[in-house]
Every structure is written in structure tokens, then in C-alpha cells.
Amino acid sequence: MEDLQLQKSILDLVEEVKALRLLNAEKDKRITYLEGRVADLEQYTQVNDVIITGLKIKPRSYARAVTKDGGEEPGEPDADSAEQQVADFLKSKGVELDCKYIEACHPLHRRNGPAVIL
């Protein structure tokens, strides 16, 4: 009698392990699918990115960035802004760029080598 109960318990555990393995395989498939979707979305968000190397950006002071001295219109880049420095650099290379089309402009920090502007 005790052997029968032990055998039934073992069979129940085997069935449970099979069910968990199946569930685990389904979750692995879902994870693989979601990782692919994340990669696709990351690629989509980078479609407008331009990376410029070798450009040394002169940082603005916090006080100047906050106070916006000079009476400029809001949203107009000043002569010291990273956007304007990039536009000036590109202009020196024969590429015209209106700063209003720049969504974001910031340096990417590197340990070795020149700074990279994104």
C-alpha cells in the first residue's frame, strides 16, 4: 500500500515537472520575441540619430544656460549651445543645418579617444 502511494506521488511530481518544463519553454519563446521587439524599437528610435566624432564642444555654464541672457527667443540656440556648435562645425564642412531640426544634441562620454556627439 505504501509503495502505491509513493509511486503515485512520484508520477504526480513527474507530471508537474513536465508541465513546468512546458511553461518554461513557452516563457523562453515569449522572452525571445520581446527581446526582438525591443531591438526593433531601439533601432526605430535611432533612425534620426547622427553621430559626429572629433568635435570638441565648449560647455556652457549652468548660470548662462538657465538665465538665457541676451534676450533670445525661447528655443533659439545661443552661440555657445551644443546645437549651434555642431551646426557651425557642419557648416565649415559644407553641410548646411538649421538648428530647429535638431531634436537633441549631447556628448557621449568615452573613456579613450575624442568625444562623440549624438
Helix and strand arrangement:
Blueprint: H1 2-45, E1 52-53, H2 62-67, H3 82-92, E2 107-108, E3 116-117
Antiparallel strand pairs: 1-3, 2-3
Region (Disordered): 65-85
Biased composition (Acidic residues): 72-81
Kindly describe this structure:
With 118 residues, this protein is mainly α. It has 2 domains: 47 residues; 66 residues, no CATH class. The protein is built from 3 helices and 3 strands, in the order αβααββ. A 3-stranded antiparallel beta sheet has the order 1-3-2, with no helix packed on it. Strand 2 and strand 3 form a beta hairpin. The longest helix is centred in the first third of the chain and has 44 residues. The protein is rod-shaped.
What proportion strand? 5-15%
Please mark out the parts with pLDDT under 50 across 5 or more consecutive residues, or reply none: none
Structural class: mainly alpha
Helix and strand element order: HEHHEE
- Structural domains: how many: 2
**Shape descriptor:** rod-shaped
- Rg, nearest Å: 29 Å
Sheet with most strands: 3 strands, antiparallel
Tell me the helix content. 40-55%
- Strand arrangement within the widest β-sheet reads 1-3-2
Instruction: State mean pLDDT (0 to 100 scale).
Output: 79
Q: What is the number of beta strands?
A: 3
The number of helical runs is 3
End-to-end CA span: 74 Å
Question: Quick gist of this model?
Answer:
The chain has a three-stranded antiparallel beta sheet, with no helix packed on it.
